[in-house]
Structure formats: C-alpha cells, structure tokens
Design goal:
Blueprint (H helix, E strand, L loop, with lengths): L1 H39 L8 E3 L2 E2 L5 H17 L2 E6 L2 E6 L6 E2 L1 H10 L6 H14 L1 E3 L3 E2 L2 H15 L8 E4 L2 E4 L5 E4 L1 H14 L3 E4 L2 E4 L5 H5 L3 E9 L7 H13 L3 E2 L4 E3 H5 L10 E6 L2 E6 L3 H15 L2 E4 L26 E3 L6 E8 L2 E8 L7 E13 L5 E9 L3 E5 L4 E12 L2 E13 L5 E7 L31 E2 L2 E3 L8
Parallel strand pairs: 1-6, 3-11, 23-27, 24-29
Antiparallel strand pairs: 1-2, 3-4, 5-7, 8-9, 10-12, 13-21, 14-20, 15-19, 16-17, 18-19, 20-21, 22-25, 24-27, 25-26, 28-29
Helix pairs in contact: 1-4, 2-3, 5-6
C-alpha cells in the first residue's frame, strides 16, 4: 500500500514539473517576441541603411528626405558637364538637363527594408542589416528631350561646313581664297558621354566627338586651274537700254564665275536661270517656228553659241548641242548652239582632273566667253571649226492666204521664207600653225521656210462720174480725186514687205 502511494507521488511531481516547464517555454517565447517587436516596430529607418553613402539609419522618412535634399539634390543641381572642343569649352548645368534624384522612392525603399514577412524572417533581415549594412543606390533621372535639345544646340555651335576655296576674276586677274576644313559633331557619341557624367552626380569633362569634313575645292587646286583653255567672242550692236543687250548682260552675269568640278556637267538653261521678267530678262527678237518674233529673253542664244565655241576650243566634252532652226548672223553655219524652254539645251562636261572656271561678259559690242582650267595640252595647240556646205534645201510651197481687201489678182509677199541648208562641221587642230588633225565634229540642218503670200480677191466696182470709186486703167484702186493709194514697193508684180538678217 505504501509502495503504491510513493509511485503516485512521483507521477504527480513529474507532471507538475512538466507543466511548469511547458509554462516557462511559453513565457520565454512571449518574452522573445516582445523584444523582437520592440526592435522592429519603430517609426524610423533601421540603423545600418545608407542611401548613396548617406546614413539614414534612425531617421524618420521626412528627416531622411531633408537630409538627401541638402546633401544630394541641391549640390547635384549645381554640377556641370564641360564639353571640350579644341580651345573652346561649353558648360551645361545638370538642372538644364532636367537631372534629379528619385529620393522619395529611395526613402520608401529604405524604410520598408525588413518590414515584411514573418517576425522571425524580419528579425533575421534586421540583424543582417545591423551586422552588414544595406546600401541603396540612387540613379539620376534626366529629361531626354532637354538633353537632345542641348546636344542640338552644341551641334549648331561646334559643327560648321567646310568652305571651298573661292576663285574669281577681278580686273583681269584671279583672286583665290583659302579653303577651310569643316567639323560635324557626332551627336550620339557626345550625348552618351554627357549622360555618363550626368549619372555620376558630379561635375565632369568630356570632349566633343567630331568628324572632319573636307572642302571640295582647295586653294592649291584653284591655283592650278587658272590657265586659259579656250576663248571666243561674238559681236552685237545697239545701245545698253536695248532689250536684247540687257538680256546679254543679265545672261552673262548669271554664268560668269561658274565653277565646274571634274566630272560635273554644265547646263546652259540651268545656269541662265528662269528666263523671266522678274529675273531681269526683257523682250527681244527670238526664232519661233521659223520666224523672228518678239519674245522674252531674246539674245541668250548668242551667249550659248559664244560659250559653245569657247568650250570647243578648250576641248571639253560636248554633251548636248542643237543648231538653230534658222541661220544666225553672228557665227558661220554649223558653229551655233541654241537653247529653248526645257527641251533644247547646251551642255558640256568637265572631263579634266581639275576645276573649270567659266568667264562671260558683254561690253562695248563684244560678247566674250572664256574657259579656264589646268592646261595639259602641248604649247602652241589651237582648235578651230570648219564648215563644209553639203546642200541647200528648197523652200516649201508658198503659203497663200486670200485677202478680200486687195484687188483681185494682186499678190503681196507678207513673209519672205528662207532656203534651208545642210552643213557638216569639222574640228581642226593646229600646233604652232601646223595642221595636226581634221575630224568630223557635227552636222547641222537649217530648215527651209515657205514664203507667205496674200492674194487679193476683191472685184473692182464700176461707178459713175458722181465721185464714187471706179477701176483705174492699170488695175490699181484710185481715190476719188484720181490719185493712187500709197502701196508697198512692187517687184515683178509681187509686193515684198520686210526681210533682213536674223539675230536671236
């Protein structure tokens, strides 16, 4: 009996000890959780956390924001990117590029560190921060458009076009300027370099990345292009106020000083510019459908012809040339060149390795064109054109128009047509006066033009002696007082009105 009592007591004691042990573990856990919460549940950023090297541990979010504004934001706005270009430098402030730190997000990130998950997980992160620290890096944001605008502004300042050497003739001599190398800013490389400095948050320097651009024409090339390769002149008459002579002056000024680079093609129509009144051209005689009429810019064909002959003597490549429809008075048949609208042009190519300079002027009745370049031909070489007459082309049948105002049978030539011509032109090359070669150069056909005749169809009336008109004995109309009316001169029964040389 006693033995049983002792065993029961032991069980009670064991149970009591177990109960006390269980209660103590629970109490210890509650005590531990309370200490964890006391450590974690604070309204400040945990110690050990830094933002861009600035210690924000123990600070509230507002305190952290104020600290970062004073130590990061405000100082950063005064930083500059310095772009260097040769001896020049250009400063761009960070705030001009819209640079800014996103400190609100950074402070929120710092504050939320170790504040999510289970208490145990949070405390584990918390202890890691205490022992090892946590650095939050801030990136600088910038305004892409503002950066692009600043780079474009730099481009406008730094980039410059290469300048060709310029040559012109003044008072019979060439004046030649120096060429200038150009620079083109590599905007992408320069922008990337500026942004890299911007991201550091501190002032820095970068060079302007540029590419050199070379001029097309150097002074040396121009100095080697002053030899007279070919020249030609034609004559004109009349005063300076004459429409045709005004056109010669305007046209010459438009082509004078033209520089043609190797391989380039000269177009007379393009060089003369739009042949309008606004561009200085005036009315003068032009050839239209085989007739001489009044038209705008009459006379520019003489400039074209004169230049064509200079080009031939310079032995440049003729690309396009057409003769006039009628013979002109200022050069022999086969030596002329016409232009008209956008369908007839005179073109030549600079087939040399150096620039070609075109000179043209009209003064004191003399129209002069000259071609300058680099002479590679032998000394004493000259070129001429020779015309070989092939055949004439008869006039077409006359164009007859009935005129009821003329007496029946009377004929008046209202327009005297032209006989046509076929010619071949040969290029003759001489050296020191000796003929070296004679080669076919071109064919020209000048169209015939029909006579235009007006034939009378009026039948003479018989009248009485009261004073009404009657038919005269010779068939002419007589006036009431018996005198003949004034008429044009009559040759062989055919009246001729107007003729003369053609200038166009």
């Amino acid at each position: 009996m006693e033995g049983k009592s002792k065993k029961a007591a032991v069980f009670v004691i064991i149970a009591l000890v177990a109960a006390i042990g269980a209660g103590g573990g629970y109490y210890y856990k509650r005590l531990k959780d309370t200490k964890l919460r006391e450590a974690l549940e604070v309204n400040t950023i945990y110690n050990g956390i830094t933002i861009n090297g600035k210690d924000v541990g123990g600070l509230t979010k507002d305190e952290a924001l104020e600290l970062l504004k004073n130590e990061l934001v405000y100082p950063m706005q005064n930083q500059v990117v310095t772009v260097l270009n040769e001896e020049e430098s250009y400063n761009i402030k960070f705030d001009e590029l819209g640079a800014e730190y996103d400190i609100d997000t950074a402070v929120d990130t710092a504050y939320e560190a170790a504040r999510s998950g289970t208490l145990k997980d949070r405390y584990k992160l918390y202890e890691d921060i205490q022992n090892n620290g946590l650095e939050i890096n801030l990136d600088i944001a910038y305004d892409e458009q503002k950066v692009n605008e600043k780079i474009e502004e730099l481009d406008g300042i730094i980039s410059r076009e290469a300048k060709d050497s310029v040559m012109k003739r003044e008072n019979g001599a060439f004046v030649i300027t120096d060429e200038e190398i150009g620079y083109e800013l590599d905007t992408e490389r320069t922008k990337d370099s500026v942004v890299e400095i911007l991201k550091t948050g501190k002032s820095g320097e970068t060079k302007a990345f540029c590419e050199e651009t070379l001029p097309k024409i150097t002074k040396e090339e121009n100095e080697m292009s002053t030899d007279l390769l070919g020249t030609f002149y034609t004559k004109y008459s009349g005063g300076p106020g004459l429409g045709r002579n005004i056109n010669l002056d305007v046209g010459c000024k438009n082509i004078d000083g033209t520089i043609l680079m190797p391989g380039e093609i000269f177009s007379m129509n393009e060089s003369l510019g739009p042949q309008t009144y606004e561009n200085g051209y005036r009315n003068a005689a032009v050839i239209v459908n085989g007739k001489i009429e009044d038209g705008l810019a009459g006379g520019v064909c003489q400039i074209t012809t004169t230049l064509y002959n200079a080009v031939v003597r310079a032995e440049l490549e003729i690309v396009e040339r057409k003769n006039h429809s009628l013979a002109v008075a200022y050069v022999p048949l086969g030596h002329d060149a016409a232009i008209a609208g956008d369908y007839t042009d005179m073109k030549f190519k600079n087939n040399t390795e150096y620039p070609i300079y075109v000179e043209a002027y009209a003064v004191d009745g003399k129209l002069v064109t000259s071609i300058y370049g680099h002479e590679t031909r032998s000394a004493g070489r000259t070129v001429e054109l020779e015309t070989v007459y092939m055949s004439s082309i008869p006039k077409p049948a006359e164009k007859v128009t009935e005129n009821p105002e003329l007496p029946e049978g009377e004929r008046i030539v209202t327009y005297e047509g032209k006989v046509g011509h076929k010619v071949s032109t040969y290029k003759l090359v001489y050296e020191n006066g000796k003929l070296l070669s004679r080669e076919w150069f071109s064919d020209s056909v000048y169209k015939p033009v029909a006579d235009e005749v007006s034939v009378g169809t009026k039948i003479a009336d018989e009248v009485d002696v009261t004073g009404e008109s009657i038919a005269g004995e010779n068939g002419n109309i007589v006036s009431e007082n018996g005198n003949d009316f004034d008429t044009a001169s009559t040759q062989g029964g055919v009246t001729v009105q107007g003729s003369g040389s053609i200038f166009e």
